[in-house]
Amino acid sequence: MCDERCPNGRISRRRLVGTSGKGLAGLSLAGGLLVPTRAAAGARRQDAPVEVTWWAPEDDMEYRQEVVDLFQAENPGIRIVLEPLPGGEADQVVATALQAGAGPDIVPSGGPAHAANLAQAGLLLELDQYAERFDWQNRLLPWALATGMFEGKLYQIPHEFECTIAYYGQKQFDENGWTPPTNRQEFEALAEDAMGKGIIPLAAGVGDCGLCTNWFVTIFFNNYAGPDALYQALTGEIQFSDPAFVEAIELLNTYMQAGWIGGSVEQYFSTSFDAMHAQIADGQAAMSWSGTWFMGDLDQFFGEEAGNDNAWGWAQPPSFRDDVPYPLFPIGIGSTLSVASATEHPDQTLQFLDWYYSDPTRVARRIAEGGTRFTLPVPYQASDFPDTLDPRVAEVLTTLSEATSTGNFGYTAWTFWPPKTHVYLHEEIQKVFTNELTPADYCAGMAELFTQELAEGLVPTAIPRDVA
User: Fold this and answer.
1) DSSP for residue 392
2) Are 293 and 11 in contact (CB under 8 A)?
3) Which residue, among 467, 458, 454, 466, has the nearest Cα to 233 in the 3D structure?
4) Which residues of 209-223 are buried (b: 16+ CB within 10 A; e: fewer)?
5) Which of 11, 216, 397, 460 has its CA 20 to 30 A from that of 23?
6) Distances from the Cα of 330 to the Cα of 49, 163, 226, 333, angstroms
7) Residue 74 CB contacts under 8 Å (≥ 6 apart), including other chains
8) What DSSP string describes 255-309?
9) Is 318 within 8 Å of 399 (Cβ atoms)?
10) Cβ atoms within 10 A of the Cβ of 207, count?
């Protein structure tokens, strides 16, 4: 399963989808969906701890419980009750539960657009006073709170911080004298050399997830049109039909038609994620452009335990225009946390969330033990990460934290596009690749739909360029 990077078939732990019923005793029916009740079985004893409920994906429950136990050892007056998300489309399940007066105190969502819908419906608690009380503006990365705003109020905190990234095979780069390309000219030279040697320049494929074409649109919009133009488009100052966006899609399609992305259009549509990683590890491909969410999976494909002598390296995809900076880090939010407006214990709930985000060293240890889905937007330093974590992963996260905190960021499609425009973005780009739609018509259609959703107030808040 997938989240907004790919809602229909990627990695189950990355989408907020829970169980089909296992472990959901004592549920009530709301809107046709089984949801845990908020009401207590009886009056709370005077000396009993306050209970705060938190819904989470079932495959994260064991590790999250370890985190909760650590908090409760320090805060015996608050009991965090972890409950698996009921089966079904997670964001819809959560919305239905909250509308029915049930559901969790700590509310998960698949990203800012989903949380904004809950805020618009009055289902989330305003967090501004708590952000000020806990000094989150200075303790989280500078841009983090900007992603949680709706109509000038704070309703959500990023829970999973990520960006697009380039992975490459160190062995084939060493053997061919390649270095990670930083600009269009360097990439095209590498791609031509690789093709001449029977090596695919970019391993790529959406066989597991057709919607993951949004990765490439994200990369080319950011690295060709540039983050300033993207911000202007996301705030309605210019249109997505602007020549900079049309030219970005034209360049993407040129590379696709040349077989530089995935080997061919046909192969791109059929190649799985595992096959993509295997192609780089086996030397059939030079590199891939995807995202930080794959870092935890790469050891399955590279090195002695995977049956080869290759290693993976990382960089950022190149800048495609001289006036677009390199490296650039498009920010993605894989999930968010909010608080239900109907919570009976707002102070205790926010006390836990503040603890959860407060210590970069503790957060870094969670990443080492639980994976990059626990990458919170806090200012990491190399010394925060334990020796048990792959130093390349620590380097990526430290670089990402430092770069985005100084304003070096762009915008991912799955985080900053409104719902209908995002569906259009990843569905219609496939028609461009199959020559059923021109890049100009593709961008014109996006502009028209985006303008409608902007007028309806459905566009997530884009991080201002000067937020750092």
Assistant:
1) H
2) yes
3) 454
4) bebbbbbbbbbbbbb
5) 11
6) 42, 5, 10, 10
7) 355
8) HHHTTTBTSSHHHHHH--HHHHHHHHHTTSEEEEEEEGGGGGGGGGTSSGGGTSS
9) no
10) 18
Fill in the amino acid letter for 78: I
DSSP string, 195-235: HHTT-EEE----SS-GGGGHHHHHHHIIIII-HHHHHHHHT
Nearest-angstrom CA–CA distance, 411 and 228: 10
Q: Which domain holds residue 16?
A: 12-161+333-406
Query: Is residue 378 included in any domain, yes or no?
Result: yes
Sign of torsion, CA 115 116 119 125? positive
Q: Residue 226 and residue 410: Cα distance in Å, rounded?
A: 8
User: Which of residues 406, 421, 439 is at a domain's end?
Assistant: 406
Burial (Cβ within 10 Å: 0-12, 13-18, ≥19) of residue 120: middle
CA 197, CA 100: separation in Å to the nearest integer?
61
pLDDT digits (tens, 9 = 90+) for 315-367: 999 999 999 999 999 999 989 999 999 999 999 999 999 999 999 999 999 89
At residue 467, what are phi and psi to the nearest 5 degrees? -65, -30
Query: What amino acid is encoded at 259 in this protein?
Result: G
Tokens 């900079």 — which residue? 244
Contact 157, 336 (CB under 8 A): yes
Which of 406, 429, 458 marks a domain boundary? 406
Answer for the pair 271, 262: CB distance below 8 angstroms, yes or no.
Answer: yes
| Per-residue pLDDT tens over the stretch 227-277 | 999 999 999 999 999 999 999 999 999 999 999 999 999 999 999 999 999
Cβ atoms of residues 105 and 53 within 8 Å: yes
Instruction: Report yes or no on 413 lying in a domain.
Output: no
Rg (CA), the chain: 22
Same domain? For 231 and 314 the reply is: yes
Measured CA to CA, the distance from residue 100 to residue 257 in angstroms comes to 50
Domain count, the chain: 2
CATH number at residue 80: 3.40.190.10
DSSP one-letter string for 115-135: HHHHHHTT-B---HHHHHHTT
